[in-house]
Write a structure and sequence with these properties.
By secondary structure, the protein is of the alpha+beta class. The protein is 17% helix and 38% strand. The protein contains eight helices and 35 strands. The longest helix has 18 residues.
């Protein structure tokens, strides 16, 4: 039997002033599903939830509920209720009256007077509140003051208040965020059980990967306002779409590799067999989970290294092995000595290979009157003689090509390429040509790959051996010889007359 869509977001985008927080969001959710929006803070997941609830209006796109356009429908007219991280319970009302509050305002069709509406009777309210209390396991708490309840109990009251109105969709915006670790884990299972009892659609927002993996039927991984991957928890964990997903979901070893043949890839100074097919010589991202690496005697491994760190995690030890300059995180139930040389084995089907999301920094720029290249709102010294073979600059700064033709490069449009490891990060932002904030960090075995975003929304992807934190404000410098220039294909007429 085909599943029935309950809600669909079509080309939805949201801007605040000039900042795009959700970009071209396309998603449908089936009736009865438990769907989780998962991603780091500021990725747009709560904004998306608020657009579904009606608290925010999309800048572009539309939202359908049961195939009806509700894009501009106000929240109180949508069959949707929301549970927030801050439960917003009424402290002057007891548990019963908190749950019943919405019901006392609600109106339903009057069976005795056609076309008229009526309030619910006390008996009807009592029945609905009693049923809601049973679902959240608070049957005997109806007369308790809110202030006497624990955080977990207050959260259940908030859920009961939301489900008592019998919504078609329940939205949950990080509802476990205020609970301690043990209570949060307990509530994960209780929420899943509530979902089964109610049979309605849950849309859940969290930055906690464990919550998402534990409770969800479907996970929507978001970053920077864009969907990165949609899938089941098993699919997301075992088959991440890109390095960001692999790093965000669970622990991962991520390396830059090279495809050697149809079914072999080289990384960690060794050529491993694999099952993924890619083009020969393609640079790829390689992901291996720590639990998928087997520690063996040094003479029995595919490649060998030295154990430099060991941490007991309760059910296993977590080791760090150095193979050349690369760190490898390994999980094993066996206790090994540190500073010991050992080998590792990685089976072909446990090596996950992905196309690189970025291979180089590419920009559109132009040459200014000083023969500098302007891009990302910065003026960088460069070698403009790259634009024409065997060219040179004369004393006045005009470029003379090999035929002796003089070119005025002022305002000439160019393409700019800069390799990841050719960009220098300065801790003092004012020392850079341009400034920006670090918005993403990935560790790739022997270096960090960071993304720096400028105020004008230009991104620099940088490989660095140094450690930074997300949101660090830094400067960017690029040596003159590291900037690669080419003329745009459409060309410009810039011969000096």
């Amino acid at each position: 039997m085909a599943k029935e869509k309950i809600i669909e977001l079509i080309n939805v985008s949201k801007k605040y002033d000039d900042t795009l927080v959700v970009e071209n969001f396309n998603l449908y959710i089936n009736k009865g599903e438990f769907v989780t929006f998962l991603g780091p803070s500021g990725c747009g997941k709560t904004t998306t939830l608020r657009m579904i609830a009606g608290f925010e209006m999309p800048t572009e796109g539309k939202i359908l509920l049961n195939n009806q356009d509700i894009t501009n429908l106000p929240p109180h007219k949508r069959p949707i209720n929301t549970v927030f991280q801050r439960y917003a319970l009424f402290p002057h009302l007891d548990v019963y009256d908190n749950i019943a509050f919405g019901l006392k305002l609600k109106k339903v069709p009057n069976e005795k007077k056609e076309g008229k509406m009526r309030h619910l009777t006390s008996a009807e309210i009592d029945e609905k509140v009693t049923n809601a209390l049973k679902i959240v396991d608070l049957e005997e708490f109806e007369n308790r003051d809110i202030s006497t309840l624990s955080g977990g109990q207050q959260q259940r009251v908030a859920i009961a208040r939301a489900i008592v109105n019998e919504p078609e969709i329940l939205l949950l915006d990080e509802p476990l965020g205020a609970l301690d670790l043990k209570m949060r884990k307990d509530m994960q299972f209780e929420l899943k059980e509530m979902h089964k009892k109610l049979g309605i659609t849950f849309i859940y927002v969290t930055h906690d990967q464990e919550e998402a993996l534990t409770m969800s039927d479907t996970i929507v991984v978001m970053n920077d306002g864009i969907i990165q991957q949609i899938g089941t928890p098993i699919d997301i964990y075992n088959e991440p779409a890109n390095a960001f997903v692999a790093d965000f979901i669970g622990e991962s070893n991520i390396y830059t590799g090279t495809i050697i043949s149809e079914k072999s890839v080289r990384f960690l100074n060794h050529t491993f067999e694999c099952v993924d097919k890619f083009e020969k010589n393609e640079k790829v991202d390689v992901v291996v989970r720590p639990e998928d690496i087997k520690l063996v005697a040094s003479n029995k491994g595919m490649v060998k290294g030295t154990l430099i760190s060991k941490v007991f995690k309760g059910v296993h030890y977590e080791y760090v092995m150095m193979i050349g300059k690369n760190e490898v995180v390994i999980q094993s139930t066996n206790d090994y000595e540190l500073d010991k040389e050992m080998g590792i084995i990685i089976e072909p089907d446990l090596i996950h290979i992905m196309h690189k999301e970025f291979t180089c920094n590419d920009y559109e720029g132009y040459i200014n009157k000083n023969n500098q290249v302007v891009f990302a709102n910065g003026e960088f010294d460069c070698d403009v003689t790259q634009l024409y073979p065997n060219s040179r600059l004369d004393e006045e700064g005009y470029l003379i090509d090999e035929k002796g033709v003089s070119h005025d490069l002022n305002d000439v449009d160019v393409k700019v390429k800069v390799e990841f490891n050719d960009i220098e990060i300065t801790d003092n932002a004012e020392d850079g040509i341009v400034e920006g904030d670090i918005i993403q960090i990935l560790y790739k075995g022997d270096h960090y790959q960071v993304i720096i975003r400028t105020e004008d929304e230009d991104d620099f992807v940088v490989d660095t051996e140094y450690t930074y934190n997300e949101n660090d404000h830094v400067g960017i410098r690029i040596a003159k010889e590291k900037i690669k220039l080419s003329l745009k294909p459409e060309g410009n007429k810039h011969e000096k007359v």
